[in-house]
Amino acid sequence: MTAKHLTDTTTLNNGVKMPWFGLGVWQTKAGDEVENAVTYALNAGYRHIDTAAAYQNEEGVGNAVRKSGIPRNELFITTKLWNADQGYDTALRAFEESNKRLGLEYVDLYLIHWPVKGKYKDSWKALEKLYKDGVVRAIGVSNFHVHHLEDLLADAEIVPAVNQVECHPLLTQTELRTFCADHKIQFEAWSPLMQGHLDNDVLVNIAKKYNKTPAQVVLRWDLQHGIVTIPKSIRESRIIENAQVFDFELSTDDMNAIDALNENRRFGADPDNFNF
């Protein structure tokens, strides 16, 4: 089912409901900038906020959430375990620190941020403990290729609920999306707007046809593919505009035309070759 409203949810493999659409806060400065961005999003009807320890803005996210007055159970908050903190004991400690910075009763989704070789399996055991202890509602991974997932699943007690990766029309991740669907792992896109590289003739022409922006077309493409998407912005007008994607539907031909743009092109690091 394609989402029809901003608050529509997908049901994860453990029964937890996760909004299809959210606000990402990567590269959003701590303090007023992130607090304002989250406040704009919540005021616009967003109920899903995605942060990470590495973004160094968890505290601001938590402040904005608390000040909003929105009941905690109506919100979905994601944060992530940073690479330097991977390992069993260090992951448990890192979660405690993230939880303190957020200052919320619990975290909805906790992800391993990158597949650090030789460490992500121990980190996953720590996440399984956090899940069993009830301090996180769901656990998952980020930036895992198929072979990372296969390796993890060989020993995991719990199947990841989510895999959040770079995905957009120039990097459609078809094989990975299929693998995740087959294993009931919800696929989620970061950098869905290609870090602003939207001046593509196909996207521009499709946008004109629907009286939408290229960004809105890409976000709609995500939703129609069953991809959870978390576009980042700090501007209130853009945060509102990004969410105006529930009043139109791309035709099959237009979906296929966007699919055909794939170049396996990354704007972020390759999970098989990163040094941070």
TrEMBL record:
One of its GO terms (molecular function) is oxidoreductase activity, acting on the CH-OH group of donors, NAD or NADP as acceptor. The keyword Oxidoreductase applies. Residues 22-263 form the NADP-dependent oxidoreductase domain. InterPro entries: AKR, AKR5G, Aldo/ket_reductase_CS, NAD(P)_OxRdtase_dom_sf, NADP_OxRdtase_dom. Keywords: NADP, Oxidoreductase. Belongs to the aldo/keto reductase family. This is Aldo/keto reductase. It comes from Alicyclobacillus acidoterrestris (strain ATCC 49025 / DSM 3922 / CIP 106132 / NCIMB 13137 / GD3B).
